[in-house]
Write a structure and sequence with these properties.
alpha/beta; TIM Barrel; eight-stranded parallel β-barrel; about 35% helix; binds ligand PBG
Length: about 325
């Protein structure tokens, strides 16, 4: 007679479960997004994202010190300019909101890795991610401005630039200019696989970046595709990306998995605003346990293969993990 197999032995108690645990969320895997706005004395909650705040530059120092103390290694910066125009001028202005914010943050907490989102959508009057010609975003002229933006961020002291515009060829063009200007050690985290997702809704309220006409489907990816994701990643690696990103995370965990299986490169995944807002709303209604759900979500992103997670929950998670009990 053959013995009954007992997989439950590996779940017997906390100690054994922890010994055989395969995926774990570590605070060092987390990247925390920050929204910087014009003005002074601003520390205001974003209506669509409870627990996420707009900061004016003068209020950033305390916030980044707290982030540093929590052990979070990196922030991802988004800026809302005081003035928008057709060509998103403030994005690549050395005195622009992000450039000033980077200098303040690096001065306050030099060890905090400052990553800048490189895109025109927050800076353009039409809300698109690049230059609009004949009703669509023109690729090559947009790349020129994206590259200027990335260089300007590097000059301000950014450790890493993260192009999120989805124009073809921008990673290679950024790498070339950064190298030519002596910024050989500035990393590129490419939003390589960025879907045209409805999960960005709350962010677009926070960043005031809703397109004024049309949508982003001619440059962001079709949610139905994942072979295309592999082609995008291959191109970005060839063009010099150091880290590649899949965004959003939860509806695209299969894509994270496929990318990680195929390419030996650090993979980041963005747990985006809509994913955040859904958890917040359900938790507020008392329908789910926020802490347990968030830890389960982030663990699932790690299990799918992400090395890094960009999440609005980073500060909460850092606090929870330091007081981890089982
Ligand atoms: C574009 C950008 C977007 C997000 C990050 N970078 C919005 C968009 O493409 O419309 C979304 C992030 C989120 O939803 O949390 N600069």
């Amino acid at each position: 007679m053959h013995l009954i197999r007992r997989p439950r032995r590996l779940r017997l108690n906390t100690t054994i479960r922890e010994m055989v645990r395969e995926s774990m969320v570590d605070v060092k895997d987390l990247i925390y997004p920050l929204f910087v706005v014009p003005g002074t004395g601003v520390h205001q909650e974003v209506s669509s994202m409870p627990g996420v705040y707009h900061f004016s530059i003068d209020r950033l120092e305390d916030e980044v010190k707290e982030i540093g103390h929590l052990g979070i290694p990196a922030v991802l910066l988004f800026g809302i300019p005081s003035r928008k125009d057709e060509i998103g001028s403030e994005a690549y202005d050395d005195a622009g909101i992000i450039q000033r914010a980077v200098r303040i943050i690096k001065g306050a907490v030099p060890s905090l890795i400052v990553i800048t989102d490189v895109c025109l959508c927050e800076y353009s009057s039409h809300g698109h991610c690049g230059l609009v010609k004949n009703g669509d975003v023109e690729n090559d002229s947009t790349v020129e401005l994206i590259v200027r933006t990335a260089l300007s961020h590097a000059r301000a002291g950014a450790d890493m630039v993260a192009p999120s515009d989805m124009m073809d060829g921008r990673v290679g063009a950024i790498r070339k200019l950064l190298d030519a200007e002596g910024y050989v050690n500035v990393l590129i985290m490419a939003y390589s696989v960025k879907y045209a997702s409805s999960f960005y809704g709350p962010f677009r309220v926070a960043a005031d970046s809703m397109p004024h006409f049309g949508d982003r489907k001619s440059y962001q990816m079709d949610p139905a595709n994942s072979d295309e994701a592999l082609r995008e990643v291959a191109l970005d690696i060839e063009e010099g990306a150091d880290i590649i990103m899949v965004k959003p995370a939860l509806s695209y965990l299969d894509v994270v998995w496929r990318v990680k299986e195929k390419f030996p490169i650090p993979v980041a995944s963005y747990n985006v605003s809509g994913e955040y807002a859904m958890v917040k709303a359900a938790a507020k209604m008392g329908w789910i346990d926020e802490k347990n759900v968030v830890l389960e979500i982030l663990t699932s992103i790690k299990r799918a293969g992400a090395d890094l997670i960009i999440t609005y929950f980073a500060k909460d998670v850092a606090r929870w993990l330091t007081t981890r009990s089982c």
